[in-house]
Task: inverse folding
């Protein structure tokens, strides 16, 4: 499977590169575009400030440019938190998308979004301050109306970016379970 994997608001950190290597070891081709052009952050405040300076439209443009040379193949889009939101936007706009793997994040869905049974898997902390229950319920229903085939996996007690071992949110058990389930999802596509 060809996978376009987008980083979180912290930038292209070692955890994203390690995730890409894990996916490659399972036989997938993976690209990890650096939407922050080399910038990596240790605090969420600095990261959000940079994201605001660059702007969401510019980040989406960078993501589209990174995916474009490979999209003809039928990509699986994936990402972490902010990267998941970006991946979701690209997958919903790419009629050749083969799947969507969301880790720690979602995005708004356009009212006119339509996909043909796009397989979607979301892994999220429970509770997650950035993905509250009411939001996730509405998101799930909107994705279903758009035509997606959605699975949601919740991890009680985990922190927001629980798959990143270099952040305080890390939860080794939840991270391992996430990767086990995600690899099975990718194999099914």
Result:
């Amino acid at each position: 499977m060809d996978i376009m994997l987008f980083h979180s608001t912290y930038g292209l950190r070692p955890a994203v590169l390690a995730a890409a290597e894990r996916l490659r070891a399972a036989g997938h081709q993976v690209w990890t575009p650096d939407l922050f052009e080399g910038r990596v952050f240790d605090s969420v405040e600095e990261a959000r400030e940079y994201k605001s300076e660059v702007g969401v439209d510019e980040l989406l443009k960078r993501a589209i440019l990174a995916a474009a040379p490979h999209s003809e193949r039928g990509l699986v889009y994936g990402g972490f938190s902010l990267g998941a939101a970006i991946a979701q936007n690209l997958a919903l706009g790419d009629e050749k998308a083969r799947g969507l793997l969301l880790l720690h994040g979602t995005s708004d869905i356009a009212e006119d979004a339509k996909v043909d049974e796009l397989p979607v898997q979301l892994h999220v902390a429970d509770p997650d301050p950035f993905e509250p229950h009411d939001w996730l319920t509405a998101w799930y229903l909107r994705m279903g109306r758009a035509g997606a085939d959605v699975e949601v996996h919740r991890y009680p007690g985990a922190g927001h970016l629980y798959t990143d071992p270099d952040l305080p949110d890390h939860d080794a058990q939840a991270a391992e379970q996430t990767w086990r389930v995600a690899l099975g999802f990718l194999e099914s596509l």
Notes: Helices lie at 14-25, 44-54, 56-67, 82-93, 133-146, 172-188. The mean pLDDT is 97. The longest helix spans residues 172-188. The beta strands are 2-6, 29-31, 76-80, 99-103, 119-126, 149-156.
